[in-house]
Specification:
Layout: E1 2-6, H1 12-21, E2 25-30, H2 36-41, E3 45-48, E4 65-68, H3 80-93, E5 101-107, H4 130-147, E6 153-159, E7 161-163, H5 171-176, E8 180-181, E9 187-188, E10 190-192, H6 193-205, E11 212-215, E12 221-222, H7 223-233, E13 241-242
Parallel strand pairs: 1-2, 1-4, 2-3, 4-5, 5-6, 6-11, 7-10, 8-13
Antiparallel strand pairs: 9-12
Helix pairs in contact: 1-6, 3-4
Length: 253
């Protein structure tokens, strides 16, 4: 089975490494030529590609499956919508006809609920922030692509905030002792990176997946509990909280 991973970063690289270890053919895109060696070391064939500059793309390999998990580089000067929506549209327009499975990693930021209520795949999507609005628009592009041919399957995976080695939510702010603009009694929606990779692999391999899944840890954690533990493990000052007019949804979704 051959797979193209578009956006071979924190999640994509883990998925690619595990596919390669299983003896599968894996291609992975990156905007940085300097990262090509890291992909090769993981068994992933690198493709230097910027989703917003399709004129410079090489011909995409005739893979069967595509995983799209492009992240937003805040230092790039590009908007979230430009990367998540326009970049995805560029990809879908140029996919080889061999592709029959497209898994798009979205975010629980598509939900606007902020009062601690439970959500599932059938909950209303009324995002209030730019990231959620862009992800929801991107999801519709994937489902439209899948509806065009009977052999195509588009799968949306809405991940909570990713954490794990090298990524601790608000680590720098905690270490500096900065107040956290959030309600300490509200929940963080999180998923450990290796769990997210396992779920992603399952959706790539599933013979007949549904079109939408949520992925999050099995126990919601209040911000007060999470940040107190994180601060203690980081040898940082005890966390302080301040009122946040946006309901504190900016640290993890």
């Amino acid at each position: 089975m051959s797979t193209l991973i578009v956006g071979c970063g924190y999640l994509g690289l883990r998925v690619g490494r595990r596919l390669a270890q299983a003896g599968q053919t894996v291609f992975g895109t990156t905007r940085s030529a300097s990262k090509a060696d890291e992909l090769k070391a993981a068994g992933v064939e690198p493709i230097i590609l910027d989703v917003l500059n399709p004129e410079s793309w090489p011909e995409l390999p005739p893979v069967v499956r595509v995983l799209s998990c492009v992240g937003h580089d805040r230092s790039s000067g590009r908007s979230l919508r430009d990367v998540y929506v326009n970049g995805l549209r560029n990809l879908l327009d140029r996919l080889p006809r061999s592709v029959s499975r497209f898994v798009y990693v979205s975010s629980t930021s598509v939900y606007g609920q902020s009062s601690g209520e439970w959500i599932d795949e059938e909950s209303a999507t009324v995002p209030t922030q730019e990231a959620g609005k862009a992800c929801l628009e991107a999801e519709s592009l994937v489902l439209d692509w899948a509806s065009g041919e009977p052999q195509r399957r588009g799968v949306i995976l809405r991940c909570a905030g990713l954490y794990g080695p090298g990524r601790v939510i608000r680590q720098a702010a905690l270490e500096r002792g900065e107040p956290i603009p959030a309600n300490p009694a509200h929940y963080l929606n999180l998923i450990q990176i290796d769990d997210a990779a396992t779920i992603t692999l399952a959706l790539l391999d599933h013979p007949a997946p549904e079109s939408l899944y949520l992925a999050c840890d099995d126990r919601p954690v209040e911000r007060a509990e999470y940040y107190a533990l994180a601060a203690r493990l980081l040898n940082a000052p005890p966390p302080q909280f301040v009122s946040d007019p946006s309901s504190g949804r900016g640290d993890a979704n």
